[in-house]
Specification:
It holds the Pfam family ABC_tran. The protein has nine helices and 20 strands. The protein has two domains: about 230 residues, P-loop containing nucleotide triphosphate hydrolases (Rossmann fold), CATH 3.40.50; about 120 residues, no CATH class. It is about 25% helix and about 30% strand. α2 crosses α3, α2 packs parallel to α4 and α3 crosses α4. Bound molecules: adenosine-5'-triphosphate. The site of adenosine-5'-triphosphate has 14 residues, from α1.
């Protein structure tokens, strides 16, 4: 059993800077939780406090119902793998795996048993005799993970640890994480600034910004109903564009007027806007790149069609960047790559797929 509860946790440094603000979260035993947030939002600070490497300035931490706020790191049953973790130089992978347990005087038989088990899970058997400098990036990562798991921690903290691997390896490792987590009886907190991992693992995700939780849920829930613009921009299969548009009412229908086009919204959406007093006001309209299509319309002014100017293709050629009257954006290229810079293009936005946020609070209106 290794559930974890954080209650109103704060981290304030001697200079007065605060990295974690009133952070409360409950993580169930054996849960795999992904903590996503931009650089500097306090993810590592939070992990360091959970692991006992840094003091909790105020608030409390419970592990399995026991108050561990001030407990010694070695009493927390937690293993950590940080961005800058390295294997002990000069030692083989096997020695790296066994070192801490040998120092703790564990019986060699038990150490050997664990090495066999973990080597099996992490495919280390063929590299047990190798030294760190002989390992590839992926092998190093597997060995580091194995070393962290040798003590059979109840909780494993992983800090952006696969971010430095090549993209193809990251994919492999994400899949393996899922398998390893199933086999090992562990609660895992995985910190990353990359939502891809959370989407790939499909597990619970907490989005963090400026030291606080923005939203908590599955990646699908967060993508479908982001609590605010920030989460909308962070979570989802394609980037979200944001446009400022004015809500209008015309002939009993509600619509949105932007600088380069307009669209009527579905009746249910219109009702929410009307009932909440948004008619005549500006709202932030969020549209995912995958929901903006190149339009064949050749005239401005058609409902749902927006004029823009082509800027550039994305590196993989699947999306294009455009400049609308009031904002830059990104949309599907649909195989078209033959635009000239600044050429006029037409975009179609599916009104069924839009997100609407309050201009002042940036909170989701729908
Ligand atoms: N010892 C410290 N003293 C003062 N400020 C600190 C200290 N450690 C971290 N910070 C600040 O706290 C904030 C959060 O840092 P933290 O490393 O937790 O962010 P992060 O989300 O993990 O970012 P990254 O993904 O880049 O590691 C940052 O603004 C950082 O500069």
């Amino acid at each position: 059993m290794s559930g974890l509860v954080l209650k109103n946790v704060n981290k304030i440094y001697p200079g007065g800077q605060q990295s974690v603000k009133d952070f409360s979260l409950e993580i169930r035993d054996r849960e795999f939780l992904i903590l996503v947030g931009p650089a500097g939002c306090g993810k590592s600070a939070l992990l360091r406090m959970i692991g006992g490497l840094d003091e909790i300035s105020s608030g409390s931490l419970f592990i399995d119902g026991k108050d561990m706020t001030d407990a010694d790191p070695k009493d927390r049953n937690i293993a950590m793998l940080f961005k800058n973790s390295v294997l002990y130089p000069g030692m083989t992978v096997e020695d790296n795996l066994s070192f801490a347990l040998r120092m703790g005087k564990m019986a060699q038989e038990e150490i050997d048993r664990r090495i066999r088990e973990i080597s099996g899970y992490l495919k280390l058997s063929d590299i047990l005799d190798k030294k760190p400098e002989e390992l590839t990036g992926e092998e190093t990562y597997r060995a580091l993970l194995g070393r962290a798991m040798m003590r059979r921690p109840g909780i494993l903290l992983l800090d952006s640890t696969i971010a430095d691997l090549e993209e193809s390896l990251q994919k492999v490792m994400r899949k393996e994480f899922k398998d390893i987590h199933k086999k090992m009886d562990m609660t895992v907190i995985y910190v990353t600034d990359n939502q891809e991992t959370a989407l790939a693992l499909g597990t619970r995700m907490v989005v963090m910004n400026e030291g606080s939780i923005c939203q908590d849920g599955t990646p699908e829930e967060l993508a479908a109903h982001p609590a605010n613009c920030f989460v909308g921009g962070v979570v989802g299969r394609s980037p979200m564009n944001f446009f400022l548009m004015k809500v209008f009412s015309e002939g009993g229908r509600i619509g949105l007027q932007g600088a380069s086009g307009r669209m009527l919204v579905p009746e249910a959406v219109g009702a929410v806007l009307e009932n909440n007093g948004y008619v005549g006001k500006e709202v932030i309209t969020g549209v995912r790149a995958e929901d903006v299509c190149l339009s064949r319309a050749s005239e401005d002014g058609q409902d749902g069609h927006f004029s823009a100017r082509f800027q550039s293709m994305t590196g993989d050629g699947t999306m294009l960047r455009f400049q609308a009257e009031d904002a830059d954006g990104i949309c599907q290229a649909e195989g078209r790559t033959d635009f000239r810079e600044n050429e006029k293009i037409y975009l179609f936005v599916d009104a069924e797929k839009i997100y609407l946020f309050d201009k002042d609070t940036e909170k989701n209106i729908l």
